[in-house]
């Protein structure tokens, strides 16, 4: 590996768009994961040409380049495990076109998800893949991780919304992938491969995205369950019934207690709650879906069932779920809420077993774990609350996660539903995809022969995520 | 290239599953395209192991292998342009699992589309990507071409329905791609790359597919237009309005005349008709969509508008569209209906211009061309009616197609919406994808270094489709 030539970076980006201060580098050495590693420099491109110039230079000089969006990745996707240059894409944040007659928009990768939705709203449209981090997550980052969120059950994930893109390849070449039309059968549709590739195959510099009409009606409901298994069975029945929820969320007892404790919401502390929503242009159709889900919840011993079209009431119903993330952070001053094994997907029929397994494993390993998530998409979220100063808690977390992923794979689930693999989940990913790992590496090698684009991630990541990088926490020795 | 060792094939497949008779080889030398080339042998695997064994042998012996489903491909995807072994997948036609609670099914690639839908029907479910050729098209072939049909406007194409698959690679390795869950963010999601790769990257031996509930209500409508541009404007307005048609078809005057002539349907010979459909579980919601589309058609001077929920009446409305394909074949005994430039996609706002361009180009080049298609997905179909015995008609067709694709690209369209590229459309494909052709070839080279899997297609196809292979027609000298 050659050394980095700062003058070359200044030439491309100008002094003002380069950071090499240790404090800046420190900040860009972590994302929302547990990992930390120092980059050599952070650069902020303003246009595609600069991205191409950087890649041409880095490819020649064998310097790792790590593209980065909002930094909200949960498993170390943008942590520069092998050093190199972090490519901060947030300046490339123009919405280039909103084409209503042809129902697509073109955006730069640094556009924040909420900003895109703000721009679409006056046209009665929205971009549905939106993850919970939409206030900071960028479209580029969402593409890199095939992000999705509460509405993926009805509207799909990022990959479903991407019609095409412009991508800078590791050698600096600019290619146009995909199309501007809803259907395409023109050969290898490589834009779909780029989605979920976590910045290891190319740098998205423009994306063409689909959008959909904002529904006239949204109705939300909640049902409480005394047994996790009943809530899980209700999820399975709802999905098998042909119902079309626009949201179907599960929240377990640990999560409810956390929200009550830190937010004083006064939620009934049951084993699990299901939050369900239907949407549409016609009230009768929304009623139909909501009633169907309500009846199924009842049949599975759901109680305290309420539903509402009223925005305020809907916000109240969703409050427990919405505040969960901050609530878990404030649960106990001595505990940190870490994103580890945080978004597995399992078949609907195993959702309750999955939640039960999480509780069992947490208890056994002396850590606190929640189970919640977008059950309608098969996605189960967890957080591990632990005292990050204690080395043995990391050992427990490692053990717990290994057991959890073993279960995920045993029920035909997949390691990540919507947060990606990065560093934290590489061990399970490598076992899950064992028979295709060589193929993945072949693709990586073909597109990035010098291995400079976000190296050391996915199939290249170390098996032990605890020691893969430094940790973003002080751990007692 | 080594010569093919028939004893090796007998060893793998048994005598009864090998064809080397010239008459058999002749039949497997063409599909629904204009092309013809002779394979060296046709083999019928019964299981994955045989496919692996064949590939291991062929990869070593450098013999081309061409996987083939129903043979309904329209642009020569399965025509063995470089000879070799045709792998007839029709015996691998088991539906392995219909998992209702987890909402997926697993099928072998030789399952015929209609058969899958017959099996799903008792459960109230259907597989929506279904192309018009569903009576013979196999799931494997549909995956190879990212097939779709009249309902893609609402339900998407094959790629949207494929959750995962098992694939035999050119070297004989078996890999599992994708997942069993609705969302997945576990690294490169290569099953999406396999969809649309036309049998050049791997052989799908099992697919995991999503399905959806059969709607309780379907309502269909038709509107006539005196000007093609008005019909086109109506399509654009419908799609921009946020309406959710489950079908939106355009049929032009040439198509209407053809159907009247050969089927005696007595359709009003207007410039264009739009056929529109909405579906759903609640009648009020279907009414809402239908009325919205009706109003838009009226606003754009649509006339004779009728709509119906009645299955018989719906069949009547759709009859003209349904019978179009056979009608064009019987239009004139001296003319053949050829699939050339037959499924371009253009942005909605250019749909009318596209149809107009087709008419203009046909007239100029002395051939008959129709314009019809799934306008709601941006897909325009055409057929060229020509006297295939006359060499100058082929020259005219070549000229016409070149002009048409130039237009498609000029309006940000794409060469193929749902039939694939194969041989017939390679010239336009190569121009359209010029900046990514090297990348496509890099991927091909990485996965199939010996170039034995369906070689000579897509970016490898000759530029001149007329001379690329023999033609499936006798042409006068």
Automatic annotation (TrEMBL), chains A, B:
<dbReference type="InterPro" id="IPR006094">
    <property type="entry name" value="Oxid_FAD_bind_N"/>
</dbReference>
<dbReference type="Pfam" id="PF02913">
    <property type="entry name" value="FAD-oxidase_C"/>
</dbReference>
<dbReference type="InterPro" id="IPR016164">
    <property type="entry name" value="FAD-linked_Oxase-like_C"/>
</dbReference>
<dbReference type="InterPro" id="IPR016166">
    <property type="entry name" value="FAD-bd_PCMH"/>
</dbReference>
<keyword id="KW-0560">Oxidoreductase</keyword>
<dbReference type="InterPro" id="IPR004113">
    <property type="entry name" value="FAD-bd_oxidored_4_C"/>
</dbReference>
<dbReference type="InterPro" id="IPR016171">
    <property type="entry name" value="Vanillyl_alc_oxidase_C-sub2"/>
</dbReference>
<dbReference type="InterPro" id="IPR016169">
    <property type="entry name" value="FAD-bd_PCMH_sub2"/>
</dbReference>
<feature type="domain" description="FAD-binding PCMH-type">
    <location>
        <begin position="35"/>
        <end position="214"/>
    </location>
</feature>
<dbReference type="InterPro" id="IPR036318">
    <property type="entry name" value="FAD-bd_PCMH-like_sf"/>
</dbReference>
<dbReference type="Pfam" id="PF01565">
    <property type="entry name" value="FAD_binding_4"/>
</dbReference>
<protein>
    <submittedName>
        <fullName>Glycolate oxidase, FAD-linked subunit GlcD</fullName>
        <ecNumber>1.1.3.15</ecNumber>
    </submittedName>
</protein>
<dbReference type="GO" id="GO:0003973">
    <property type="term" value="F:(S)-2-hydroxy-acid oxidase activity"/>
</dbReference>
<keyword id="KW-0274">FAD</keyword>
<dbReference type="GO" id="GO:0071949">
    <property type="term" value="F:FAD binding"/>
</dbReference>
<keyword id="KW-0285">Flavoprotein</keyword>
<dbReference type="InterPro" id="IPR051914">
    <property type="entry name" value="FAD-linked_OxidoTrans_Type4"/>
</dbReference>
